[in-house]
Amino acid sequence: MYDEYIKAGQIASKVRKSATKRITSGMKVIDLIEWVEEEIRKNGAGLAFPCNISINDITSHYTSPPSDDTVFCNGDIVKIDLGTHVDGYIADTAVTVIVEGDNIEIDNNTSMPGRLDNGNPEVTTSDLEERVELIEAARNALECAISIIRDGITLSDISSQLEETIINQGFNPISDLTGHSLARYNLHSGLQIPPVSTGDTHTLHEGDVVAIEPFVTSGVGLVETLPQHYIYSYLRERPFGESEASKLLKHIQENNLHFPFAKRYFLDLYDEDKLNHVMHPLITSRAIFPYKLLKEASGAMNAQCEHTIIVEKEGCIVTTL
Ligand code: CO
């Protein structure tokens, strides 16, 4: 179990580091996502969830739909959140980077679901400075929290440490995006670790595995849920008779029972139009759950930094360092 967590962490960390070096303005988001997912598989791990890429005011739950024309622009603040698993033992890690490269011209008619500004963002020098500070604040908050984790620490101790570090750096934590406990084949296994103190006296013990993931913003520090969705997870059996929906649900039960998935996973079964059609009844009947896209509620830029850790007697092991 321990070895699998470590191996999943090493692969996640290696892929995360290489991914940050590949991003450049004009690159398609789907190209980075597919590269990340392929690297994870090549290195001998499975995907614990589709690679999430969240640009600027978007915080989470974006992955590319099958034909995605979204591109990165110079100055974007980009969260890359990826998850691996080895035999069900998960590593969950995220990093935030600023996109560099030439300014690109974007045709206004291009639909880019991965950006709410639809391209051509105006980025001033002071915007860029603030984005760098957001990233540093998220990284510092994560490091400070990790430095106090050991057997016997309460969730409230970790939350307060995150909150304090973020506020002291002049920003706000996003209070409704939380760290979480992990278990085998279970990405969110019950405990929540928000970046604001809650008084939660639950105590962590040696061997517990948690992901700590503060989000830092210059905005109000809440998320807003948008109607669109790109990531799903299996919920329950539903009767669909002899339909295509029934076949797809069976396929999901066989291949995606434990971990969230994206439409891209099923392109060998259906083309995009047909897939949308077949998936629709699965969502409306709650056979599968759609994770709605999340943005910072005031539309502000935000940064995220995440590691998975195993609690030890006198400290902790960061599996995704
Ligand atoms: Co996480």
Q: Which ligands occur here? A: cobalt (II) ion
Q: In terms of per-residue confidence, which ranges show pLDDT below 50 for 5 or more consecutive residues?
A: none
SS-based class: alpha+beta
Indicate the radius of gyration in whole angstroms.
Answer: 19 Å
Largest sheet: number of strands, sense, barrel closure: 5 strands, antiparallel
Query: What's the end-to-end separation, in Å?
Result: 18 Å
Name the strands of the widest sheet in spatial order: 7-6-8-14-15
Shape: globular
CATH evolutionary superfamily of the largest domain: Creatinase/methionine aminopeptidase superfamily
Task: Figure out the total of helices.
Answer: 6
> Level of helix content?
25-40%
Strand/helix succession: HHEEEEHHEEEEEEHEHEEEE
* Whole-number tally of structural domains: 2
CATH class of the largest domain: Alpha Beta
CATH T-level topology of the largest domain:
Creatine Amidinohydrolase
In CATH, the architecture of the largest domain is Alpha-Beta Complex
Residue fraction in strands: 25-35%
What integer is the average pLDDT?
96
Number of strands: 15
